[in-house]
Amino acid sequence: MDATRVHETAFVGPGVALGAGVVVGPFAVLLGPATVGDHVWVGPGVHLGGAPEMSSERRNRAWDGDLDHHAVVVGEHTVLRDGVVVHHGSWRPTTIGSHCQLFSRAYVAHDVVVGDRVTLSAGVSIGGHATVRDGANLGLNASVHQRRSVGALAMVGMGTPVTRDVPPFVQAYGSPVRVHALNAVGLRRAGVGDDDLERLAGLLRADGVAGVAGVESGSGGTGWHDQTIDRELHWWHTLPDRMPARLAGAPAVVPS
């Protein structure tokens, strides 16, 4: 069923492009510029758009149309539950990837980039210019500081303030945020074999901070790392202004 349905109480403003099969629920507000991909579900009271605040200005001139701002982009098959808020970007589009789940009252600030298959649990807040990579999972009421990053397939525990960058493939929680182990559950769900899990755990143990050291392509394992591990480790080691989360201690080899 590809018909797009917009509830009679919702507001869809100029400059909003809705894909096929989009559902927009009661009292949702969508302000352009915005692009919503195919089969996105927009729940009651969702707010997409709204000009980013510029602290150097006496007021936000974007509302008057004389200060440039960028779009909101939502990828296909993403679910935005009730009360989700996503603001426009100031220098790049605020982007939510495909097949994401944003639960009730999740907040995504200006210029944030959220990858594909990301879960933001209820009450999660992502500060401006932050990055959340593919497959990451943020627990209830976790918060990400401005300009910080969460790596692919990382699991951030509920209520955690992410004030330092979280590397890919790990569990991170506590205040201050610390890395505790591999995210074995998430990695297995993504198709990672036990050989790769063991290798990643060894690399994590060997590091003084949560910089997961380089991995040699083709050195055993399932082959999954050839495409994903190498790419995400390259991203991690080339991340500008990186502030790695510290290790909580020697993680278990692989949590069962």
Automatic annotation (TrEMBL):
Look up the EC number in the record and give it: 2.3.1.129
What one GO molecular function would you report for this record?
acyl-[acyl-carrier-protein]-UDP-N-acetylglucosamine O-acyltransferase activity
What is the uppermost EC class here? transferase
Q: Name one GO cellular component term.
A: membrane
Q: What is this protein called?
A: UDP-N-acetylglucosamine acyltransferase
Naturally occurring in which organism (per UniProt) = Terracoccus luteus
**Lineage top rank: taxon:** Bacteria
Keywords linked to the UniProt accession: Acyltransferase, Lipid A biosynthesis, Lipid biosynthesis, Lipid metabolism, Transferase
Report the record's Gene Ontology biological process terms.
lipid A biosynthetic process
Q: Which residues form a coiled coil?
A: none
